[in-house]
Amino acid sequence: MRLRLPHPPGSPPSRRWWITTLAINAGIVLVVFAAIQLIPARPGNPPVIREPVWDSPETRARTVQACYDCHSNETQWPWYSRIAPVSWLLAYDVVEGREDLNFSEWDRHAVSDIDPDEPFAPKTLVERIEDEIRSGRMPPDLYQLNHPAARLSDAEREALIAGLLRTVEQNQTTPDDTE
Ligand code: HEC
């Protein structure tokens, strides 16, 4: 959107005309920026219900560093998470991330709804976690840019995968086990 004031035809716009036009446009940008701040976007941190029993304190520490901001109810919200439109993007990541995997609501993952023996069975949580980390999709690149602690060396990545796989396997039953 760009607002231009009319100016007499035939003559080039004056300096004053340019300054007024620029000021009006800057004003519009400011008002819109202020207005979008009123749209609330932080999902906040609901209470921690239950964590899995970790295979080791190191696995938990690495997971907290690399995954907890989007996959737990203990998100560390940075100062810019208060400023729209960035706040909307962060909120989206956290809501979607928690939906798929939430270490603070392990009750939801305690019983796997996937029978790996079924033909065409979708990937189990263990397989998805391994895939996501090894492929480099998790933690996301943009997040690593702002969170040096989430950058993993090859050795750390392998240790995190191994620790998470042990943890999930120990804390997940398949429906058959409970019959
Ligand atoms: C910046 C936020 C963020 C961080 C940090 C993060 N994730 Fe995610 N994760 C997401 C979002 C958003 C989704 C859902 C959308 C998607 O699949 O991209 C997701 C999805 C997933 C999924 C499900 C993928 C699928 O399609 O089955 C797994 C598994 C996962 N993340 C594991 C991890 C692990 C393990 C870590 C830490 C090493 C991690 N994530 C770090 C945001 C994040």
Structural class: mainly alpha
Shape: elongated
Distance between the termini: 63 Å
Beta-strand portion reads under 5%
Report the radius of gyration as a whole number of Å: 24 Å
Largest sheet: none
Q: What helical percentage do the residues reach?
A: 40-55%
Number of domains: 2
Number of strands: 0
User: What ligands are attached or bound here?
Assistant: heme C
SS field, number of helical segments: 7
**Mean pLDDT, rounded to whole units?**
92
H and E order: HHHHHHH
Low-confidence stretches: none
Describe the structure.
The chain has 179 residues and is mainly alpha-helical. It has two domains: 36 residues; 122 residues, no CATH class. Helices cover 50% and strands 0% of the residues. The chain has seven helices and no strands. α4 runs antiparallel to α6. It is elongated and about 85 Å long. The termini are far apart. The mean pLDDT is 92. Heme C (HEC) binds next to α2, α3 and α4.
